[in-house]
Amino acid sequence: MSIITLGPARMGDAPAIAHLSRDLVEADLPWSWTPRRVAGLMRQRESAAVIARDRNRLAGFILAQYGDESAHIALLGVANEYRRQGIGRLLVQWVEETAMVAGLFLVRLEVRAIKRDARHFYANLGYREIDRVRGYYSGIEDAIKMSRDLRALSTSK
Ligand SMILES: CC(C)(COP(=O)(O)OP(=O)(O)OC[C@H]1O[C@@H](n2cnc3c(N)ncnc32)[C@H](O)[C@@H]1OP(=O)(O)O)[C@@H](O)C(=O)NCCC(=O)NCCS
Questions:
Q1: Structural domains of the chain, ranges and CATH numbers in brackets
Q2: Bridge partners, 54 (sequence order)
Q3: Is 19 in the pocket of ligand 1 (CB under 6 A)?
Q4: What is the rounded distance in angstroms from the CA atom of residue 46 to the CA atom of residue 134?
Q5: Ligand 1 atom at shortest distance from the alpha carbon of 116
Q6: Which residue from 17, 77, 110, 125 could staple onto 143, CB 3.0 to 4.6 Å apart?
């Protein structure tokens, strides 16, 4: 039985996050989220990295950056064997809640255009497709920009 816990990622988690990201998010693309890049983002003051663990196993991760006007989901992945258990939703909700605490009411992200399942996932969480960016991924593949306005969420609570 899996026991999933969510918590802040530590610097020592950067290599595992990077390797899982290469397999889940960047499959068939050049590896851009290397351990060094993941660690670099984690070191930034205005960033957050949260992981889902099953005991000592990395089940999922989310990396986000908080700007002046919006929060940006830089990287999200849930390992294949842990999918459809609500982990992805919990990770995104964590970013949304921390964004609102920081006074930010917009969450943005890019997703690979060919990843229909990920686009469905975000749409199901209330994200709207706002633009298509040609060649966003290494000049090879398009991205869909998506965003969610959290103001409706905060007034409905
Ligand atoms: C997208 C991803 C993070 C979803 O993680 P997850 O933990 O399986 O998602 P959840 O279980 O929280 O799903 C929440 C809802 O999203 C929708 N959803 C999730 N996966 C879906 C899929 N493959 N197809 C269609 N809808 C999906 C469903 O409505 C689901 O609710 P339900 O299971 O009650 O029907 C995961 O599939 C993944 O890591 N994909 C590869 C990496 C990636 O594309 N990352 C995003 C871009 S950076």
A1: 4-156 (3.40.630.30)
A2: 4, 57
A3: no
A4: 28
A5: 24
A6: 110
Would you call 79 exposed, middle or buried from its count of C-beta atoms within 10 A (0-12, 13-18, 19+)? middle
pTM for the complete prediction? 0.95
Ligand 1 pocket check for 63: Cβ under 6 Å? no
Dist. CA 88–CA 31, nearest whole Å: 22
Q: How far is the CA of 118 from the centre of ligand 1 (A)?
A: 6
46, 42, 44: which is closest to 12 by C-alpha? Answer: 42
Rounded CA separation 36/20 (Å):
14
pLDDT tens per residue across span 109-150: 999 999 999 999 999 999 999 999 999 999 999 999 999 999
Smallest Cα–Cα separation from 95: which of 83, 78, 80, 109? Answer: 109
Tokens (6 digits) for 35: 């351990």
**Residue 56 phi, psi dihedral angles, 5° rounding:** -95, 5
Burial (CB < 10 A; 0-12, 13-18, 19+), residue 12, is exposed
**pLDDT, tens digit, 9 for 90 and up, residues 46-98:** 999 999 999 999 999 999 999 999 999 999 999 999 999 999 999 999 999 99
Cα separation, 135 vs 34, whole angstroms? 20
